[in-house]
From TrEMBL:
The lineage of its organism: Bacteria, Bacillati, Bacillota, Clostridia, Eubacteriales. It comes from Acetivibrio clariflavus (strain DSM 19732 / NBRC 101661 / EBR45) (Clostridium clariflavum). Keywords: Membrane, Transmembrane, Transmembrane helix. Residues 27-55, 102-113 have a biased composition (Basic and acidic residues). The chain crosses the membrane at residues 409-431, 481-499, 505-529, 536-561. This is Spore germination protein, GerA family. GO terms for cellular component: membrane. GO terms for biological process: spore germination.
Amino acid sequence: MGFLADIKKLIKDWFTFKEPEKFEKFILKEKESETRDHREDNDSDEKKVESEKGQSEGNSENIKRNESTGSKKRGIKSQFAPIMQIGAKDNKKEEKCECEDNEKKEKEEEQKDVSSMTKVSKKLSDNIAYLKQKYTVPASADVVIREFHITVKDKTIPACIIFIDGLVNTDVMDMAILQPLMLLSNLDIKEDEYDVEEIVKSRLLPHNQVKIVEDFSEIVGDVNFGGCGIFIDGIDVAFTADIKGWKGRGIDRPNTEMVIRGPQEGFNESLRTNTGLIRKILKDAALVVENIAVGKRSRTPCALMYIKDIANDSLVDEVRRRLNGVDIDYLIDSGELEQLIEDNSFLAVPQIMATERPDRVAAMLTEGKVAVIVQGSPFALVMPATHIDLFHSSEDSYIRFPYANLVRIIRVCAVAMSLLLPGLFVAITNYHHEMIPTDLLFAIEASRERVPFPSLVEILIMEFAFEFIREAGVRIPGPLGPTLGIIGGLILGQAAVAANIVSPILIIIVAVTGIGSFAIPNFSLGYAYRVLRFAYIFLGATAGFFGITAGLYLQGIWLAAAKSFGVPFLSPLGPVTKGAMSDQIFRAPIWKQEKRADYLNVKKNRKQPEISIKWMKNDEKK
């Protein structure tokens, strides 16, 4: 019974795949039982039986017992045959699973090794695997990895080229890269000159901008910016070539800084076109253009421009430090970069000048300032910027100085009226009636006799209406924008007066305020004064002239404390400097502008000799 119970338990263990080792223990137990049976047989043979009947009966019993033992063994083997087959199948399955697991582990290790690559490998297959994993090929349909062969000294070498379709000029790539490598590479090379890297660079790549690169990060950056990468089996470097070919906007007139006299060229969205426009004006070898990429994902190229023998090194280092310290995912326009590197983001007025005129950037570079141009933006950033710089126009340099001074005075008056006129009107009508002539006071009160609103509500209605019309005129495309502003303003103003919502005098004040805001040369400064105008309206309605005076005092303190890259924002007025007044509030004759602004601490303070009109001196001698 114990033997059968062991068999049942063993079968159960085998079918449940829990303890397959017991099968071996059972075989050992069976062998021990066979040895015991043989010993008993030998003992029975040695015994002497007295009678033949007893001996024959004993022999017959031994035979039956041996037969029964043999049948038991055969039965056990027949019973365990399917179990052994199951065990063999299980072993095969386990071996197969182990092989699959090993293959998966090997693939994962290979992928891990490829993803951790930072340098170009000598194996072309590893480089291709890294590029496919980096660019998610073939899911990324615009990324092309083209494999080909190069024949050098009767030896065929595998190679590949990677580029992004839509960013490159395919004609240049075919004629200057692929054709020389694939069709003209069967060269007669001497034994001592056999160097694949040198042969490819000096003889097989006629393109003018070929670089030898080792880091994958630099290769990926060049490919993403309209270049191509060339990999050759057996060498641990790659070749990159600049073959940009995307479509862009041509050079057009500037839209926000139009002038009557002066250059009519403006920046566009191409970085190299913009830097070329500046170099076309400044043909100076000392003009430096540094490339800095901003954005971890966009890797937007930016150009840091300055004249190395004029600009202050501390200023250049500070601008470079701020550009390298910007840690964002993407950068689209220079307006975003301006907000990331300015000194005080809560200051209403801009601390960096944005301009789309190459001539203005070139003039400021000669003064010792620094410019930053961003790929994809038609506006260049110039720093540092002072409050007076924002009132200047590039046209001031191209007209005679009396006209330029008159225009600057008009701009200052226009800014003051656009900023303070609505607030002064509210303060006078509410608190200071004695400040205006009696006849004018009676006329104002008569015009407001049927208006049901107080002066504050009345002027806010018209100010918001004017802002609505201006914003709509900007958003409407084509020539309809200015037309909408003029017609909309006339119709809306006439209807508001006819409906007794506002008074006619208020329509005049709002119109003058709007026209004055358009006289500001810098559009960012215009936005700032539009916001501050509402603050002065509330101050005038709350405390009259005292509130407006307090607002001006606080604004002056705010501006005096502001700095732009270490330069006081109110320079050269606060603090007062001596050598920078020839072209600040008033413009001196051009032959009197002998020195640069001293608040910049430039390397060369003098920009022209004391006598720059030498022909006049020669005439005096005669």
